[in-house]
Amino acid sequence: NAGVTQTPKFQVLKTGQSMTLQCAQDMNHEYMSWYRQDPGMGLRLIHYSVGAGITDQGEVPNGYNVSRSTTEDFPLRLLSAAPSQTSVYFCASSRARVNSPLHFGNGTRLTVT
Amino acid sequence: KQEVTQIPAALSVPEGENLVLNCSFTDSAIYNLQWFRQDPGKGLTSLLLIQSSQREQTSGRLNASLDKSSGRSTLYIAASQPGDSATYLCAATQGGSEKLVFGKGTKLTVNP
User: Fold this and answer.
1) Within an 8 Å CB–CB cutoff, is residue A4 touching chain B?
2) Contact A101 B34 (CB under 8 A)
3) Which residues pair with A90 in a beta bridge?
4) A42-51 vs A31-38, strand pairing mode
5) How many Å separate Cα B55 from the centre of its chain?
């Protein structure tokens, strides 16, 4: 099994550009989420989804959009990139909403200049 | 609001030593607490999940305990090896929610 796959691995954007970070899981997991990891800040939840067609905001949702049209895919869209969005982004999934281990992708390192 | 703290931020031990990593949380109304390992440039790998009703979980040389009343969890690593070198993160669910709140991690170095 591939698990949680994130693309691209690295990306450089200019301020104001938009892009989509892709996330796909092949484990038929119900729950998917996006985190960003910044030095000194730890991991912070951006958006999450408890099933296809259902999304909700996490701790730091501003500047990001998500959708969940299928169980497998959970893309994260940056609407107008800002230098403050320079970070490492992780997608994660779990079999159930509660009390299931979280499986992470290998991350996307994004730099906004 | 749940806050998760891990102290120390870094720990260096000689190979073969038994060690304990600490995690504290402020809101005891948790569904579960999870321990993860992160290698440089990689995502997190789930190590152990302790549900609210459990006191401990074991996997190989790893044992995690949970004390909700004191807001503490510990990860015990027996007979440490250089391959155990990584950053270890704990995460607790936010009260009444499935959302995980992460600590900033303890960077462990096991010296040969």
Assistant:
1) yes
2) yes
3) A35
4) antiparallel
5) 14
Q: Is residue B100 within 8 angstroms of chain A, CB to CB?
A: yes
- The pLDDT tens digits of the residues spanning B8-67 come to 999 999 999 999 999 999 999 999 999 999 999 899 999 999 999 999 999 999 999 999
Question: Where does the pLDDT of residue A1 fall: very low under 50, low under 70, confident under 90, or very high at 90 and above?
Answer: low
B103 touches chain A (CB under 8 A): yes
Query: pLDDT higher for B94 or B46?
Result: B46
- Report, in angstroms and rounded to the nearest whole number, the Rg of chain B calculated over CA atoms: 13
Mutate to test the interface with B, among A9, A30, A43 (most CBs of B within 10 A): A43
Give the separation between CA A66 and CA A74, rounded to whole angstroms: 7
**CA gap A84, A57 in Å, rounded:** 18
Rounded CA gap, A41 and B13, in Å? 25
Instruction: Please give the Cα distance from A80 to A100 (Å, whole number).
Output: 34
Q: Are B66 and B73 in contact (CB under 8 A)?
A: yes
CA-nearest residue to B54 within chain A is: A99
Q: Is A4 exposed, middle or buried (0-12, 13-18, 19+ CB in 10 A)?
A: buried
Query: For B50, phi and psi rounded to 5 degrees?
Result: -110, 120
Could you tell me if A90 lies within 8 Å of chain B, comparing CB atoms? yes
Dist. CA B44–CA B19, nearest whole Å: 21
- Over residues A13-18, mean pLDDT: 97
